[in-house]
Model the fold of this input.
Amino acid sequence: GIQVEQSPPDLILQEGANSTLRCNFSDSVNNLQWFHQNPWGQLINLFYIPSGTKQNGRLSATTVATERYSLLYISSSQTTDSGVYFCAVGDTDKLIFGTGTRLQVFP
Amino acid sequence: DGGITQSPKYLFRKEGQNVTLSCEQNLNHDAMYWYRQDPGQGLRLIYYSQIVNDFQKGDIAEGYSVSREKKESFPLTVTSAQKNPTAFYLCASSITGTYGYTFGSGTRLTVV
Done:
C-alpha cells in the first residue's frame, strides 16, 4: 500500500515564527489532504490539495504530485496553531494517514 | 446541525471484557470509518463501510468487530482478543467516492 511520511515529527516555535511541514508519499495519488488535530483530539480538514497551491489566511499548501510531496506553510504562528498536523492520501476507497507533525507554539 | 457523534468520550475496560464504541452520523453519508490513534502515531484504519450491511477490514482489524445495520450507525466492538486496546478511537464519515471526511470527537479507551 501507499506509504506516507511526514517531517519533522516535532516542531517547537515561538509565536510569530514561520514553519514548513513536509509530506512525502510513495505512489501517485489523486487525493491529498492536510488535517489539524487540536489538543482535545478533534480533527479538522485544512486543505484538499492533490496538486498545485492553495492559501487560507496564514496557512498555505503546495503539492508537487510528480515528485510525490506536499508542503504545509504556517506563517506568523499563534498558540492556537498548536496540535498535530496530518497529511492523508487517497488509496482506492479510503484515506491513509501519515504519522503527523506535532507543533507547539509558545507565547 | 449535521454532524458525527461518538460516545462515550472516555471508557475504561477491564482486561478480558468486550466493549462497544458508538458512532452516529446525521450527514446522510454512505461511508463510515474507524481509525485508531496511539500516542505519537498517526491514524490507522481498523474497519470501513461503504454501504449498509457491508464492511471491509482495514490495516489493523484483528481483535475488533463492526456492524452496519443502519446508514447512520457504525458501532465498533473491541474484543478481548485485542491485545493492546488502550488508544484513542476516531470515527469518520464521507459521501461514497469522495474523500471529504468528517470526524467525530473521539473515544479514549483505557484498559485497567
Q: What stands out?
A: The interface with chain A takes residues 31, 33, 35, 40-45, 48, 50, 58-59, 88, 90, 92, 96-97, 99-101, 103, 105-106, 108 of chain B (CB under 8 Å). Residues 41 and 87 of chain B are 11 Å apart (CA to CA).
